[in-house]
Each structure stands twice: as structure tokens, then as C-alpha cells.
Amino acid sequence: MELLVLFLEFFKIGLFSVGGGLATLPFLYALADKYPWLQSSQIPDMIAVSESTPGPLGVNMSTYAGFHCDGVLGGIVATVGLVTPSVIVIIIVYQFLEKFRNSRLVENAFYGLRPVVVGLIASAGFGVVVLALFGQNVSPMNWTEFFRWKEIVLFILVLAAARKWKQVHPVAFILVGAAAGVLFRMG
Amino acid sequence: MKELFSLFITFARIGAFTFGGGYAMLPMLQREVVQNRKWATEDEVLDYFAIGQCTPGVIFVNTATFIGYKQKGILGAIFATAGGIFPSLVIILIIAAVLTNFAELPVVQYAFGGIRVVVGVLIINAITGMWKKSVVDKLGIFLAIAAFAVVTFTPLSPVWMVLAGAVLGILAKSFSVSGKGEA
Q1: Has this prediction a pTM greater than 0.80?
Q2: A88 in contact with B, Cβ within 8 Å
Q3: Domain locations in chain A as residue ranges
Q4: Are B62 and A90 an interchain contact pair (Cβ–Cβ within 8 Å)?
């Protein structure tokens, strides 16, 4: 019974959180108010773990919260609940898209949409770069601490390498980044 | 069956190496889905992102469902999504069960400090490729810069920018068609 409630709660979160991982946050706090197995003081820890592990934030946090409710099975049920509305909604949207693929209106809408999405991805990239290369809560006037020199050197090296060797898989660069981070104590 | 398995594995690989949420999956998606498997074009990936941004759920999952469904129908959608969330499930369950102080471990913080730098580079490279292909005229340049500025510097939801892009795209095309013939 508890698993069914868990599935439905996360189904609801999946259905109502529009626009990515952090959109699930307010819903998690609401869950913490409602159920004894989740305390709102645990949520910042969950965010920290979700951000320092691979995979989408929303999925990681659901797995974590579900585990607190009912162990491994709870983690799986919560995550499946979270993604089920996505799968249903996207399959429906796909049908419409196929039907109107060749309509002038849809084509023109996408002509305007694509540059916007490029801008949105650029914004996400900008956020990551700022977080990685510049000190948080440090005044730019204090420039020896504001600029994270080790990270900036790595940034320039990887940028040059990725441009030169285009065939190298992104995973290789990520592993190099993790190794360099540990070796030179970054972050 | 082989293709279903291949959808699962490919999205598991993308999930295992996507750090930092939705759009950070772009470099992996470009390499695995666009270049290696040729399951979608770069333009289609942008279209899926746009729809994923305005529909409920996690963008990563929405994109996996799209590509899985396109390849193999409902089963394809389920396998791609299951693959995408599989690494998260395994990693988070292990951490939740044994390594409760995982995020505070110095080695994790150092590694992530380096990974963040690389993810930044990978997103920048992915963007320059996308820019060349999808930002084709002055309106495109304006929309890309406007979306970047609004989402970076104001608390406005990206959903509004996506809707504005669609409306402006439709308006611009209908005016240019009536004005100067085929654009």
C-alpha cells in the first residue's frame, strides 16, 4: 500500500514539474510536510548528492527520497512514478508532431524555437562555467581568490584539446577532468 | 530486440556521464545519438529539447522517450527511458544505503571540481556546433541572444522564451512570405 502511495506521489511530481530537475524541489518540500519518512532537513543533502553524481537531478532526488520511504524498492517505485507521466505525455505529443510535421505552422514555430533552445543551452553552459571558474561569495576585487587559477588552466587546456581532437569521446574528457580535479584539489 | 537493447545501453551510457542536469546531456547526446547511432538529427534534438522544456517531467527523460519512441514505438520509449534512469538508480541507491556522507568526501568534491570545468567546455563546444546549424539569420541571432540573456539574468521561466520563439517564428515567416515570397 505504501508503495502505491509512493508511486502516485511521484507520478504527481512528474506530471506537475515543468522545466527540469530543480522544478521538483517545491514538491519534495511538500512531501516532507506530509509524510514522516522525509524530513525537510534531509533535502539539502539530497541536492548535494544528486548534483555530485551523474544523471538528471529530478531522477536522482526521487530515487533518494523513495529509498528513505521504503528501501531499494521504494527508490525504484518513486523513480518509475516520476518518469511515467513523461513517457505518456511525450508519446502523445509525438503523435501530434508526426501528424502536423509538414504543416507550415509547425515548421515555422520550430524555425523560431531552435535558436531559443540554443540560447537556453548556452545559459546552462554559462552557469556551469561561472560556477567552475570563479569563486562563489568572493568579491571580484579580491582577484587572487576570485579567479580559480587551476580550474582556468584546465579549462583552457581542455578547450584546446577538444577543438584539436574532435573524435575523442566526451567521456574521455570527463574522466580527465575528474582525475585532474583530484590531483590538483579543485572545487 | 537488438535495437531495444541498444536503446537501453546507449541511454544508460548517456545517463552515466551526464553531470549537472538536463542540458548538460547535449554533448553526450550529440556524440552517441546523432553521430554514432544516427537516431536523430541535430535539429530534431533541439526540437525535442524545446518540447521537453514545455512538457511535464525531466528534460533528459522526455528526450530519451522521444528518441526511443521514434526508433521502436512504445517499447522503444520504455527501454530508452529505463536505460537513461538505470545508472541514477544504481548509484543513488548505493550512496543512500552506504555512503551517507558521499557529497562531503574531499575526493568527491575535488573530482567534481574538475568535472564541472570539463562539462563547461563540452557544453560550449556543443553550442558552437548547434549555433552554426540552427541560427541561420538575424531573427535567429536575436532570439538566441534574447533567450540567453533573459534566462541567465532574470528569474523568468524558460517556458516563456520557448513560447515566444514559436510565436515569433510563425509571425516572421508569415510576414516574409506575404512580403517577399518564399523565405
Answers
A1: yes
A2: no
A3: 2-100, 119-183
A4: yes
Q: Please tell me the total number of residues recorded for chain A in this structure.
A: 187
Q: B58 in contact with A at a CB cutoff of 8 Å?
A: yes
CA distance A96 to A148: 48
Q: ipTM surpassing 0.95, yes or no?
A: no
Instruction: Supply the range of the domain harboring residue B75.
Output: 2-100
SS (H, E, C) B4-61: HHHHHHHHHHHHHCCCCCHHHHHHHHHHHHHHHCCCCCHHHHHHHHHHHHHCEECHHH
Residue B141 φ then ψ, to 5°: -60, -45
Tell me whether residues A18 and B28 touch, CB distance under 8 A.
no
The grid cell for B180 is 517577399
Instruction: Collect all residues of chain B within an 8 Å Cβ-Cβ radius of residue A107.
Output: 173
- CA-based nearest residue to A133, from A152, A117, A107: A152
| B140 domain-assigned | no
Residue written as grid cell 508569415:
B174
Chain B residues with CB inside 8 Å of A70's CB? Answer: none
Cβ contact A112–B61 (<8 Å): no
pLDDT in tens, A91-108: 999 999 888 878 999 889
